[in-house]
Amino acid sequence: MTGREQELRREDLADDPTTQYRAWFADAVAAGIPSPEACALATADAAGQPSVRMLLLKEVDDQGFVFATSYISRKARDLADNPRGAVLVYWYALGRQVRAEGRVERVSPGESDAIFLARPRASRLSALASRQSELLGSRGELEQRVRDLDAELEGREVERPDFWGGYRLVPETVEFWQHRANRLHVRFVYRRTATALAVGWDIVELQP
């Protein structure tokens, strides 16, 4: 089967969700899907009010799903009060979703520096100029701040400000969802297990 009608069997799955995600991500890249690293991130504040937004994953490693933002943004404020979240990656052309849920923690300053310095200079200037999620007086005011910073930092490296950095969602569950006809979709969930010696994963199949 090709396209959105692909097999997904238990024996096809890797032993851990990171390896499985990387295999599916490689398929998305090979299929030419635009921004295959795009995902939706859901958070909730201390009162349980949810919010969700699209962003770009910076890395998916053995520890979890990494993204970055301003520490004064709404998502960061949510995570300060309620450090749990969920991400959803959806590749329509392949009929695939990946869902992960778990606790969220800040990455190390060194990791945040690397993420920030990998951004284009213009994007770094925007991060410096923006007080993300705060009220904006005018678009012209914001654009002038960017121009002023560009002039001030001409010929210099635009370094990461202390109000910006990375987060890692450390998953407790990761679901791999494959579209099938007649809504008989295939769903496998990795559930984290832990012993005194190691962290492992149980894999179960859910009804569609």
Q: Key terms for this structure?
A:
5 helices, alpha+beta, Pnp Oxidase, Chain A, single chain
Outline the fold blueprint:
Layout: H1 17-30, E1 38-44, E2 50-56, E3 59-61, E4 64-70, H2 74-81, E5 84-91, E6 96-106, H3 109-117, H4 121-129, H5 139-152, E7 164-178, E8 186-194, E9 199-206
Antiparallel strand pairs: 1-2, 1-5, 3-4, 4-7, 5-6, 6-7, 7-8, 8-9
Helix pairs in contact: 4-5
Could you characterize the architecture of this molecule?
- The structure is a single chain.
- By secondary structure, the chain is α+β, with helices and mostly antiparallel strands.
- It has a single domain (10-121, 163-206), classed as Pnp Oxidase, Chain A (Roll).
- It contains five helices and nine strands; from the N terminus they run αββββαββαααβββ.
- It has helices spanning 17-30, 74-81, 109-117, 121-129, 139-152; strands at residues 38-44, 50-56, 59-61, 64-70, 84-91, 96-106, 164-178, 186-194, 199-206.
- Strands 1, 2, 3, 4, 5, 6, 7, 8 and 9 form a nine-stranded antiparallel β-sheet that branches.
- It is elongated and about 55 Å long.
- The chain starts with 16 loop residues before the first helix and ends with a strand.
- The mean pLDDT is 95.
